[in-house]
Fold:
Amino acid sequence: MARTDAVVLGAGIVGTSIALHLVKAGLSVALVDRRGPGEETSYGNAGIIEGHTVFPPAFPQNFGALLRVALKQAPEANYHWNALLQVAPWLWSFRAASRPERLIETAQMVRPFFNQALPEHENLMAESGAARYLRRDGWLKLYRRDASFTALRRELDVASGFGLPFETLDTAQALAREPSLRPVFRHAVLWPGVGTLTNPLAVTRAYAERFSDLGGITLTGNAHTLHRSGSRWRLDTAEGALDADHAVVALGPWAPDVLKPLGIDLPMTVKRGYHRHFRATGNAGLTHTILDAEVGYCLAPMEQGIRLTTGAEFARRDAPPTPVQFDRLMPQAAALFPLGAPVEDQPWMGSRPCFADSRPVIGRAPGQSGLWLAVGHAHWGLTLGPATGRLIAEMMTGKPTFVDPMPYAAERFLKSA
Structure:
Protein backbone atom coordinates (compact mmCIF):
# COMPACT_ATOMS: atom_id res chain seq x y z
CA MET A 1 0.00 0.00 0.00
CA ALA A 2 1.58 3.29 -1.14
CA ARG A 3 0.98 6.46 0.84
CA THR A 4 1.54 10.16 0.15
CA ASP A 5 0.72 13.41 1.86
CA ALA A 6 -1.49 14.46 -1.04
CA VAL A 7 -2.97 13.05 -4.22
CA VAL A 8 -4.06 15.41 -7.02
CA LEU A 9 -6.77 14.07 -9.31
CA GLY A 10 -6.51 15.51 -12.79
CA ALA A 11 -3.34 16.33 -14.74
CA GLY A 12 -4.55 19.31 -16.71
CA ILE A 13 -2.85 22.66 -16.30
CA VAL A 14 -4.68 23.27 -13.00
CA GLY A 15 -3.97 19.89 -11.43
CA THR A 16 -0.38 19.76 -12.66
CA SER A 17 0.29 23.25 -11.29
CA ILE A 18 -1.20 22.27 -7.93
CA ALA A 19 0.91 19.13 -7.73
CA LEU A 20 4.05 21.11 -8.56
CA HIS A 21 3.35 23.74 -5.91
CA LEU A 22 2.59 21.08 -3.29
CA VAL A 23 5.83 19.21 -3.89
CA LYS A 24 7.71 22.52 -3.76
CA ALA A 25 6.08 23.09 -0.37
CA GLY A 26 7.74 19.90 0.90
CA LEU A 27 4.84 17.44 0.62
CA SER A 28 4.98 13.98 -0.91
CA VAL A 29 2.55 14.15 -3.83
CA ALA A 30 1.02 11.85 -6.44
CA LEU A 31 -0.55 13.25 -9.62
CA VAL A 32 -3.17 10.88 -11.03
CA ASP A 33 -5.00 10.90 -14.35
CA ARG A 34 -6.27 8.40 -16.88
CA ARG A 35 -4.24 10.15 -19.58
CA GLY A 36 -0.98 12.06 -19.80
CA PRO A 37 -0.56 15.61 -18.46
CA GLY A 38 -2.42 18.26 -20.46
CA GLU A 39 -4.05 15.89 -22.94
CA GLU A 40 -7.69 16.74 -22.20
CA THR A 41 -9.28 20.21 -21.98
CA SER A 42 -5.93 21.91 -21.26
CA TYR A 43 -4.76 21.05 -24.77
CA GLY A 44 -7.43 23.04 -26.56
CA ASN A 45 -7.42 26.78 -25.92
CA ALA A 46 -6.22 30.00 -27.49
CA GLY A 47 -3.03 29.94 -25.41
CA ILE A 48 -3.83 33.25 -23.69
CA ILE A 49 -2.73 34.02 -20.14
CA GLU A 50 -5.48 36.55 -19.51
CA GLY A 51 -4.05 38.37 -16.53
CA HIS A 52 -5.47 41.60 -17.95
CA THR A 53 -8.99 40.35 -18.48
CA VAL A 54 -11.50 42.80 -16.98
CA PHE A 55 -15.02 41.44 -17.47
CA PRO A 56 -15.89 37.74 -17.69
CA PRO A 57 -17.99 36.44 -20.59
CA ALA A 58 -21.53 37.78 -20.30
CA PHE A 59 -25.02 36.77 -21.34
CA PRO A 60 -25.99 38.54 -24.60
CA GLN A 61 -28.00 41.69 -23.97
CA ASN A 62 -28.79 42.38 -27.63
CA PHE A 63 -32.06 40.86 -28.84
CA GLY A 64 -30.67 40.29 -32.31
CA ALA A 65 -27.74 38.32 -30.91
CA LEU A 66 -30.08 36.23 -28.77
CA LEU A 67 -32.31 35.54 -31.77
CA ARG A 68 -29.35 34.36 -33.88
CA VAL A 69 -28.34 31.97 -31.10
CA ALA A 70 -31.91 30.72 -30.71
CA LEU A 71 -32.15 30.10 -34.47
CA LYS A 72 -28.77 28.29 -34.42
CA GLN A 73 -27.24 30.83 -36.78
CA ALA A 74 -24.70 32.44 -34.45
CA PRO A 75 -21.02 31.55 -34.87
CA GLU A 76 -20.29 32.50 -31.25
CA ALA A 77 -22.65 29.94 -29.67
CA ASN A 78 -24.41 26.66 -30.40
CA TYR A 79 -26.61 24.33 -28.38
CA HIS A 80 -28.16 20.88 -28.40
CA TRP A 81 -31.90 20.75 -27.86
CA ASN A 82 -31.64 17.83 -25.42
CA ALA A 83 -29.31 19.85 -23.16
CA LEU A 84 -31.47 22.96 -22.77
CA LEU A 85 -33.57 21.74 -19.85
CA GLN A 86 -30.45 20.71 -17.97
CA VAL A 87 -28.61 23.98 -18.58
CA ALA A 88 -31.60 26.34 -18.18
CA PRO A 89 -31.12 27.08 -14.42
CA TRP A 90 -27.45 27.80 -15.06
CA LEU A 91 -28.28 30.16 -17.93
CA TRP A 92 -30.75 32.02 -15.72
CA SER A 93 -28.07 32.50 -13.05
CA PHE A 94 -25.57 33.47 -15.74
CA ARG A 95 -27.94 36.14 -17.02
CA ALA A 96 -28.27 37.56 -13.50
CA ALA A 97 -24.48 37.54 -13.06
CA SER A 98 -24.15 39.47 -16.35
CA ARG A 99 -25.91 42.60 -15.10
CA PRO A 100 -23.55 45.60 -15.36
CA GLU A 101 -23.21 46.09 -11.62
CA ARG A 102 -22.49 42.38 -11.10
CA LEU A 103 -19.83 42.38 -13.81
CA ILE A 104 -18.05 45.28 -12.14
CA GLU A 105 -18.34 43.58 -8.76
CA THR A 106 -16.86 40.36 -10.17
CA ALA A 107 -14.06 42.25 -11.90
CA GLN A 108 -13.08 43.94 -8.65
CA MET A 109 -13.31 40.70 -6.68
CA VAL A 110 -11.04 38.63 -8.96
CA ARG A 111 -8.52 41.36 -9.85
CA PRO A 112 -5.93 40.41 -7.15
CA PHE A 113 -5.97 36.82 -8.38
CA PHE A 114 -5.63 37.75 -12.05
CA ASN A 115 -2.82 40.19 -11.26
CA GLN A 116 -0.69 37.17 -10.31
CA ALA A 117 -1.64 34.99 -13.27
CA LEU A 118 1.26 35.85 -15.56
CA PRO A 119 3.93 36.21 -12.81
CA GLU A 120 3.05 32.76 -11.45
CA HIS A 121 3.35 31.25 -14.94
CA GLU A 122 6.66 33.00 -15.48
CA ASN A 123 8.03 31.57 -12.22
CA LEU A 124 7.10 28.01 -13.18
CA MET A 125 8.29 28.46 -16.77
CA ALA A 126 11.68 29.69 -15.61
CA GLU A 127 12.29 26.66 -13.40
CA SER A 128 10.80 24.11 -15.81
CA GLY A 129 12.58 25.29 -18.97
CA ALA A 130 9.34 26.34 -20.66
CA ALA A 131 10.01 30.07 -21.08
CA ARG A 132 10.59 29.59 -24.81
CA TYR A 133 6.85 29.03 -25.29
CA LEU A 134 5.88 32.42 -23.85
CA ARG A 135 5.28 35.49 -26.01
CA ARG A 136 4.83 38.95 -24.53
CA ASP A 137 3.30 40.64 -27.59
CA GLY A 138 -0.15 40.92 -26.03
CA TRP A 139 -3.37 40.16 -27.86
CA LEU A 140 -5.49 42.15 -30.25
CA LYS A 141 -9.28 42.41 -30.06
CA LEU A 142 -11.07 43.52 -33.24
CA TYR A 143 -14.47 45.20 -33.54
CA ARG A 144 -16.30 45.29 -36.85
CA ARG A 145 -18.97 47.86 -35.93
CA ASP A 146 -18.76 51.28 -34.30
CA ALA A 147 -21.55 50.32 -31.88
CA SER A 148 -19.59 47.34 -30.54
CA PHE A 149 -16.55 49.48 -29.89
CA THR A 150 -18.64 52.20 -28.23
CA ALA A 151 -20.20 49.57 -25.92
CA LEU A 152 -16.68 48.69 -24.78
CA ARG A 153 -16.25 52.06 -23.05
CA ARG A 154 -17.37 50.86 -19.63
CA GLU A 155 -14.91 47.96 -19.66
CA LEU A 156 -12.06 50.23 -20.72
CA ASP A 157 -12.91 52.67 -17.94
CA VAL A 158 -12.74 49.86 -15.39
CA ALA A 159 -9.43 48.69 -16.89
CA SER A 160 -8.04 52.21 -16.52
CA GLY A 161 -9.13 52.22 -12.88
CA PHE A 162 -7.20 48.97 -12.36
CA GLY A 163 -4.12 50.47 -14.02
CA LEU A 164 -4.19 47.93 -16.88
CA PRO A 165 -2.49 49.17 -20.06
CA PHE A 166 -4.29 49.08 -23.40
CA GLU A 167 -4.13 50.89 -26.73
CA THR A 168 -7.14 51.76 -28.87
CA LEU A 169 -6.32 51.53 -32.58
CA ASP A 170 -8.07 52.39 -35.79
CA THR A 171 -7.99 50.05 -38.77
CA ALA A 172 -4.77 51.44 -40.24
CA GLN A 173 -2.94 51.33 -36.90
CA ALA A 174 -4.01 47.73 -36.32
CA LEU A 175 -2.92 46.71 -39.83
CA ALA A 176 0.47 48.27 -39.17
CA ARG A 177 0.81 45.80 -36.28
CA GLU A 178 -0.63 42.86 -38.25
CA PRO A 179 -0.14 43.41 -42.00
CA SER A 180 -1.64 40.04 -42.95
CA LEU A 181 -5.08 41.03 -41.66
CA ARG A 182 -7.63 42.45 -44.03
CA PRO A 183 -9.56 45.65 -43.24
CA VAL A 184 -12.94 44.09 -42.44
CA PHE A 185 -12.99 45.72 -38.98
CA ARG A 186 -13.22 49.34 -37.84
CA HIS A 187 -11.59 49.36 -34.39
CA ALA A 188 -9.11 47.36 -32.33
CA VAL A 189 -7.80 47.25 -28.79
CA LEU A 190 -4.31 45.99 -28.04
CA TRP A 191 -3.75 44.57 -24.55
CA PRO A 192 0.07 44.59 -24.34
CA GLY A 193 0.34 43.08 -20.85
CA VAL A 194 -1.15 39.74 -21.89
CA GLY A 195 1.07 36.69 -22.36
CA THR A 196 0.39 34.03 -24.97
CA LEU A 197 1.72 30.50 -25.43
CA THR A 198 2.78 28.90 -28.67
CA ASN A 199 2.18 25.39 -27.29
CA PRO A 200 -0.01 25.07 -24.16
CA LEU A 201 0.35 21.27 -24.12
CA ALA A 202 4.14 21.53 -24.03
CA VAL A 203 3.95 23.97 -21.11
CA THR A 204 1.75 21.62 -19.08
CA ARG A 205 4.14 18.75 -19.83
CA ALA A 206 7.11 20.86 -18.78
CA TYR A 207 5.44 21.59 -15.42
CA ALA A 208 4.75 17.86 -15.02
CA GLU A 209 8.41 17.05 -15.72
CA ARG A 210 9.50 19.61 -13.15
CA PHE A 211 7.11 17.99 -10.68
CA SER A 212 8.75 14.62 -11.32
CA ASP A 213 12.26 16.08 -11.04
CA LEU A 214 11.36 17.34 -7.54
CA GLY A 215 10.26 13.88 -6.42
CA GLY A 216 6.57 13.87 -7.34
CA ILE A 217 5.09 10.69 -8.77
CA THR A 218 2.68 10.50 -11.71
CA LEU A 219 0.28 7.55 -11.79
CA THR A 220 -2.46 6.26 -14.06
CA GLY A 221 -5.72 5.79 -12.23
CA ASN A 222 -9.48 6.15 -12.17
CA ALA A 223 -10.65 9.09 -10.07
CA HIS A 224 -14.06 7.43 -9.62
CA THR A 225 -12.46 5.02 -7.14
CA LEU A 226 -11.72 7.80 -4.62
CA HIS A 227 -13.19 6.90 -1.24
CA ARG A 228 -12.62 7.18 2.49
CA SER A 229 -10.33 4.68 4.17
CA GLY A 230 -10.30 5.53 7.86
CA SER A 231 -8.99 9.06 8.22
CA ARG A 232 -7.37 9.06 4.78
CA TRP A 233 -8.40 9.06 1.13
CA ARG A 234 -7.83 5.95 -0.98
CA LEU A 235 -7.58 5.66 -4.74
CA ASP A 236 -7.02 2.70 -7.06
CA THR A 237 -4.20 3.17 -9.58
CA ALA A 238 -2.51 0.97 -12.15
CA GLU A 239 0.31 0.55 -9.63
CA GLY A 240 -2.04 -0.44 -6.80
CA ALA A 241 -3.99 1.30 -4.06
CA LEU A 242 -2.80 4.71 -2.90
CA ASP A 243 -3.59 6.35 0.43
CA ALA A 244 -3.25 10.10 1.05
CA ASP A 245 -3.98 12.49 3.88
CA HIS A 246 -5.26 15.06 1.39
CA ALA A 247 -6.99 14.66 -1.97
CA VAL A 248 -7.36 17.52 -4.46
CA VAL A 249 -10.09 17.27 -7.11
CA ALA A 250 -8.92 19.16 -10.20
CA LEU A 251 -10.85 17.15 -12.76
CA GLY A 252 -12.36 19.95 -14.82
CA PRO A 253 -15.61 18.83 -16.47
CA TRP A 254 -15.35 15.37 -14.89
CA ALA A 255 -15.34 16.67 -11.30
CA PRO A 256 -19.09 16.05 -10.72
CA ASP A 257 -18.59 12.32 -11.37
CA VAL A 258 -16.41 12.15 -8.26
CA LEU A 259 -18.00 14.85 -6.11
CA LYS A 260 -21.70 13.97 -6.35
CA PRO A 261 -21.26 10.50 -4.78
CA LEU A 262 -19.53 12.29 -1.90
CA GLY A 263 -22.53 14.56 -1.39
CA ILE A 264 -21.02 17.64 -3.05
CA ASP A 265 -23.32 18.91 -5.80
CA LEU A 266 -22.07 22.19 -7.23
CA PRO A 267 -24.03 24.15 -9.91
CA MET A 268 -21.45 23.67 -12.63
CA THR A 269 -22.21 23.29 -16.30
CA VAL A 270 -20.06 22.52 -19.32
CA LYS A 271 -19.33 24.71 -22.33
CA ARG A 272 -17.86 22.69 -25.13
CA GLY A 273 -15.45 24.27 -27.58
CA TYR A 274 -13.57 23.30 -30.72
CA HIS A 275 -10.34 24.21 -32.44
CA ARG A 276 -8.56 23.39 -35.66
CA HIS A 277 -5.15 24.34 -37.01
CA PHE A 278 -4.68 25.87 -40.44
CA ARG A 279 -1.72 26.75 -42.58
CA ALA A 280 -1.44 30.37 -43.64
CA THR A 281 -1.55 31.24 -47.31
CA GLY A 282 1.66 32.49 -48.87
CA ASN A 283 3.81 34.56 -46.52
CA ALA A 284 0.94 35.54 -44.23
CA GLY A 285 1.54 35.33 -40.50
CA LEU A 286 0.42 36.61 -37.12
CA THR A 287 2.38 38.19 -34.29
CA HIS A 288 -0.54 38.54 -31.90
CA THR A 289 -3.42 36.30 -30.93
CA ILE A 290 -6.52 37.83 -32.51
CA LEU A 291 -10.05 37.94 -31.12
CA ASP A 292 -12.75 38.76 -33.66
CA ALA A 293 -15.02 39.97 -30.88
CA GLU A 294 -18.38 40.20 -32.62
CA VAL A 295 -18.06 36.89 -34.45
CA GLY A 296 -16.71 35.04 -31.42
CA TYR A 297 -13.54 33.21 -32.44
CA CYS A 298 -9.79 33.50 -31.94
CA LEU A 299 -6.87 33.13 -34.33
CA ALA A 300 -3.76 32.10 -32.40
CA PRO A 301 -0.28 31.53 -33.85
CA MET A 302 0.82 28.13 -32.52
CA GLU A 303 3.65 25.75 -33.28
CA GLN A 304 1.11 23.49 -34.99
CA GLY A 305 -0.20 26.29 -37.23
CA ILE A 306 -2.81 29.03 -36.93
CA ARG A 307 -5.25 27.76 -34.29
CA LEU A 308 -8.86 28.75 -34.93
CA THR A 309 -11.02 28.40 -31.83
CA THR A 310 -14.81 28.51 -31.69
CA GLY A 311 -17.15 30.01 -29.15
CA ALA A 312 -19.25 27.99 -26.70
CA GLU A 313 -21.48 25.00 -27.32
CA PHE A 314 -24.06 23.97 -24.70
CA ALA A 315 -24.40 20.21 -24.93
CA ARG A 316 -24.11 17.15 -22.77
CA ARG A 317 -20.46 16.65 -21.93
CA ASP A 318 -20.16 13.25 -23.58
CA ALA A 319 -22.40 13.86 -26.59
CA PRO A 320 -20.80 13.31 -30.02
CA PRO A 321 -19.00 16.36 -31.47
CA THR A 322 -21.02 18.79 -33.59
CA PRO A 323 -18.52 21.37 -34.88
CA VAL A 324 -21.11 23.32 -36.87
CA GLN A 325 -19.75 26.65 -35.63
CA PHE A 326 -16.85 26.32 -38.06
CA ASP A 327 -19.29 26.44 -40.98
CA ARG A 328 -20.77 29.65 -39.55
CA LEU A 329 -17.52 31.48 -38.84
CA MET A 330 -15.16 30.26 -41.57
CA PRO A 331 -16.32 32.78 -44.22
CA GLN A 332 -15.70 35.67 -41.82
CA ALA A 333 -12.42 34.25 -40.53
CA ALA A 334 -11.15 33.71 -44.07
CA ALA A 335 -12.18 37.27 -44.96
CA LEU A 336 -10.07 38.57 -42.05
CA PHE A 337 -6.97 36.40 -42.50
CA PRO A 338 -5.77 34.25 -45.45
CA LEU A 339 -6.27 30.80 -43.96
CA GLY A 340 -4.97 27.93 -46.04
CA ALA A 341 -5.49 24.18 -45.75
CA PRO A 342 -6.36 22.60 -42.40
CA VAL A 343 -3.56 20.71 -40.66
CA GLU A 344 -5.78 18.01 -39.11
CA ASP A 345 -8.53 15.95 -40.69
CA GLN A 346 -11.01 16.71 -37.90
CA PRO A 347 -11.46 19.49 -35.33
CA TRP A 348 -10.50 18.93 -31.69
CA MET A 349 -13.24 19.19 -29.05
CA GLY A 350 -12.96 19.90 -25.32
CA SER A 351 -15.21 20.89 -22.42
CA ARG A 352 -14.90 23.90 -20.12
CA PRO A 353 -16.31 23.53 -16.58
CA CYS A 354 -18.16 26.75 -15.71
CA PHE A 355 -19.97 28.37 -12.81
CA ALA A 356 -22.51 31.07 -13.59
CA ASP A 357 -20.68 33.69 -11.50
CA SER A 358 -17.46 33.16 -13.54
CA ARG A 359 -15.39 32.26 -10.48
CA PRO A 360 -13.79 28.86 -9.88
CA VAL A 361 -14.20 26.92 -6.65
CA ILE A 362 -10.84 26.71 -4.88
CA GLY A 363 -10.35 25.49 -1.32
CA ARG A 364 -11.65 22.97 1.20
CA ALA A 365 -14.58 20.77 0.26
CA PRO A 366 -17.56 21.36 2.57
CA GLY A 367 -18.13 18.51 5.00
CA GLN A 368 -15.18 16.40 3.84
CA SER A 369 -11.97 16.69 5.86
CA GLY A 370 -8.82 16.45 3.80
CA LEU A 371 -10.65 16.99 0.50
CA TRP A 372 -9.82 20.04 -1.60
CA LEU A 373 -11.47 21.49 -4.69
CA ALA A 374 -10.00 23.29 -7.69
CA VAL A 375 -12.77 23.17 -10.27
CA GLY A 376 -14.82 25.38 -12.58
CA HIS A 377 -12.09 27.57 -14.10
CA ALA A 378 -14.16 27.98 -17.29
CA HIS A 379 -12.22 29.99 -19.92
CA TRP A 380 -9.41 30.70 -17.47
CA GLY A 381 -7.91 27.31 -16.61
CA LEU A 382 -4.70 28.03 -18.48
CA THR A 383 -4.57 31.55 -17.06
CA LEU A 384 -5.12 30.65 -13.42
CA GLY A 385 -3.52 27.20 -13.18
CA PRO A 386 -0.25 28.22 -11.48
CA ALA A 387 -1.96 30.85 -9.29
CA THR A 388 -4.47 28.19 -8.20
CA GLY A 389 -1.61 25.83 -7.41
CA ARG A 390 0.04 28.39 -5.19
CA LEU A 391 -3.23 29.18 -3.39
CA ILE A 392 -4.05 25.52 -2.69
CA ALA A 393 -0.49 24.86 -1.45
CA GLU A 394 -0.62 27.84 0.91
CA MET A 395 -4.01 26.84 2.27
CA MET A 396 -3.08 23.19 2.72
CA THR A 397 0.18 23.97 4.53
CA GLY A 398 -1.35 26.71 6.68
CA LYS A 399 0.69 29.57 5.24
CA PRO A 400 -0.69 33.09 4.69
CA THR A 401 -2.39 33.17 1.31
CA PHE A 402 -1.33 35.66 -1.35
CA VAL A 403 -4.98 36.49 -2.09
CA ASP A 404 -8.18 36.22 -0.08
CA PRO A 405 -9.60 32.75 -0.89
CA MET A 406 -13.13 33.61 0.22
CA PRO A 407 -14.46 34.62 -3.25
CA TYR A 408 -13.62 31.10 -4.46
CA ALA A 409 -15.13 29.09 -1.57
CA ALA A 410 -17.71 26.42 -2.38
CA GLU A 411 -19.84 27.68 0.50
CA ARG A 412 -21.05 30.59 -1.65
CA PHE A 413 -23.35 28.14 -3.40
CA LEU A 414 -24.45 26.35 -0.26
CA LYS A 415 -25.51 29.63 1.34
CA SER A 416 -27.71 30.49 -1.59
CA ALA A 417 -29.23 27.03 -1.85
User: Anything to note?
Assistant: The chain has one domain: 2-416. The longest helix spans residues 100-115. Residues 40 and 87 are 22 Å apart (CA to CA).
